[in-house]
Write a structure and sequence with these properties.
heterodimer, A: alpha+beta, Peroxisomal Thiolase, Chain A, domain 1, nine-stranded mixed beta sheet, B: OB fold (Dihydrolipoamide Acetyltransferase, E2P), 2 domains, five-stranded antiparallel beta sheet, three-stranded antiparallel beta sheet, 39% strand
Chain lengths: 387, 130
Amino acid sequence: MTTSSLSKVASVVGVGHTDYRGDWARVRAGEKPYDSVGYAAMALKAALADAGLELSDIDGLIVGPTTPYDRMGEVLGLDVKWGGQGDAMLSVIQAVMAINAGLCETVACVYGNNQRSAAVNYGGDNAVGGGNFLSYIYHAPWGFTSQGALYAMMFRRYMEESGLTSAELAEVSVAQRLHSSMTPHALMQKRITVEDYLASNFVCEPLHLYDYCLVNDGGVAFIITSAERAKTMKGKAVPIHGVGRYDLNRGATSMIPRLTNFYLPAQQKVAEQVFNMAGVGPEDIDCLQIYDSFSCHIPLALEGYGYCKLGEAGKFMRETGISVEKGLPVNTAGGHLSESYMQGWAHQVEAVRQVRGECGARQVPDCNFVHYSSDVAGKAVSILYGR
Amino acid sequence: MANSKIVMGKDDVPMWESIERGAMELQKCCTCGAFRYPPAPVCPNDLDEKSEWTKVSGKGTILSWVVFHKKYFDDHVPLYNSVAIELEEGPFIVSQLQGAEPEGSWIGKSVELIYGEHAGRIQHFAKLSA
């Protein structure tokens, strides 16, 4: 089935984020620069400036999961025709749907998270997220906790089945550190080698420290408007060419979809939807942005979306490459592992900047299409940005 | 840091009572016969509420395993393992392998559930089948 109705109905016209490095330094010095709502507000200010828009131009608001909708809207002073809440990918999709339905014209998507200064726990007692995702807390009696451990369990099985080695998985961390070293706003400026990776500590074996995302404070915002409105604006609009989603909910807590086939069927269904909608295929994609709470998302997405053959992601990463220097560039600003852990939001910013051609040393030449993919807890989502 | 806790939803109570007795029971759907885990108010195949708490054999195979190097709980001190097991009856569960460990890959090894005290409660563990 082809679904094309959402292709190029809306464009991103402004992106912004907080000063990740400055706030990182302040938080490490014991300061609390902003709360989550404050980070989001600062990001929106930057996005409005990028778009050349005023607050009064905004008639839709979608806020991330870490800030309450009502307070966020109040702090921003936004009365809107359409409002909602969602993670990075669903915020974009909701915005496109609302614009397409004529419910509003110009949507601000905002995210703020004080996870570092507020000492949020992603594992152990009171692990965050358990209210929504039972798998995050249900197996605690056996010491099995943290989202990293869930991916470690999944990826161990993948490694045993496919033969992918730790040194091949290291390619992800090494490439993304290379990228973050070319990204002035990224937290991690120092490159690492495969040897550094292999010498690093395990957190939950088989995953090493370098396989894990950072935990830092920050905010991200983007502004999405109708394609017609975008034409009248000065900024460089980046059309959304396709969106897609498929959720594997059955057996989620006991990890059935993780361990049976690594979410592959969800990614394949989304690939069909998003590529059909956009009228392109994997061979047309110049750059990938992949939600990387853990490095192992990358090889699984490479296979799930057809960028390499099934079971060959390790070989692909080692031989073809996944950096701006070699092969198919993935997470060109450093991703969650090395740029900033903004739960998928910063990936949208980087996708837009790559299409605009604003990325300096890490710019992918002739970047026509960027594919964003996430597979968080079995919810596979894709967004295709293009010229 | 604190000790690990059981997530005790309304439907989990009978399962943990059976674990306390040293023989885990899971709900078996009266319509389709499927076992479900975690316990739930209806069967995901047919939304039937009617189920019978049925003792599982405790036999299964290892699907995957991890080894924790970071400490998250007072009552789980690294290094320790967690294993994902496919029970003979179908459900996937998480437990901890005690005693002898396989050489090389753990995947596909036959295990059986055993029961023991941990942090003041009885829970299941796994051991390699003879």
